[in-house]
From TrEMBL:
Keywords assigned by UniProt, alphabetized: Flavoprotein, FMN
Species of origin: Bacillus swezeyi
Alphabetical list of SMART domains matching this protein: Flavin_Reduct (SM00903)
Domain of life: Bacteria
Similarity comment text for this entry: Belongs to the flavoredoxin family.
UniProt GO molecular function: FMN binding; oxidoreductase activity, acting on the CH-NH group of donors, NAD or NADP as acceptor
Name of this chain's protein: Flavin reductase like domain-containing protein
Length: 207
């Protein structure tokens, strides 16, 4: 077994180990309102997960640029304190990937796609109509993290869900369940690789 210490690795080497081992990861497809001109910025993030059901909290980690600048999503969310998180399924995977392009803040990444927006109920930021699960969020907390050189390199957004939007075909209203087989979410692996919904198995938890 290899034993490696982060202090002996480059940032790229550390990233490759973490992103290749912590898999599969859910993808947060996030819309925010640009602080420059109000257009809808959209971007995917795979350092993303749930924190709590009470209160309903999500976390999204947004790395900064090489020169230490906040990315559009983090800056927009920190200023407006609102954003919308969408779960990426197979139907919107290609469009989601297009929004990973680095565009100026005044341009909308959605212009690179066939996706359309829809007005939200509880926040001013629009959602993506074609996404079958979306969470309207208020910014609960914004945390920053520094590296060993005391450079701020990461913004952690913690969002409180204030509204759920669930497509009819993926929500079992009687049981209150998400039908994952119908949603068919995709997950992030390493490099350019993703995983589709596939084989599942069940383990009963001990009491």
């Amino acid at each position: 077994m290899f034993t490696l210490f982060p202090r002996n690795l480059t940032v790229k080497e550390t990233y490759k180990l973490m992103s290749g081992a912590v898999v599969p990861r859910p993808i947060a497809f996030v819309t925010t309102a640009s602080t420059v001109n109000g257009v809808v910025n959209a971007a995917p993030f795979s350092f993303f997960n749930v924190i709590s059901a009470d209160p309903p909290l999500l976390s999204i980690s947004v790395g900064r640029t090489q020169d230490g600048e906040m990315k559009d999503t983090a800056r927009n969310a920190a200023e407006s304190k609102e954003f919308v998180v969408h779960i990426v399924d197979e139907n919107i995977a290609e469009d989601m990937n297009q929004t990973a392009a680095a565009l100026p803040a005044h341009q909308s990444e959605l212009d690179l796609t066939d996706l359309t927006t829809i007005e939200s109920d509880q926040v001013s930021v629009p959602g993506i109509r074609e996404a079958r699960v979306r969470f309207e969020c208020k910014l609960e907390r914004h945390l920053t993290f520094q590296n060993d050189q005391a450079e701020t390199v990461n913004d952690l957004l913690i969002g409180r869900i204030v509204c759920f939007h669930l497509a009819d075909e993926v929500y079992d209203a009687e049981k209150g369940y998400i039908r994952t087989d119908a949603l068919r979410p995709i997950a992030r692996l390493a490099g350019n690789d993703y995983a589709k919904w596939g084989e599942t198995f069940t383990l009963i938890r001990p009491t």
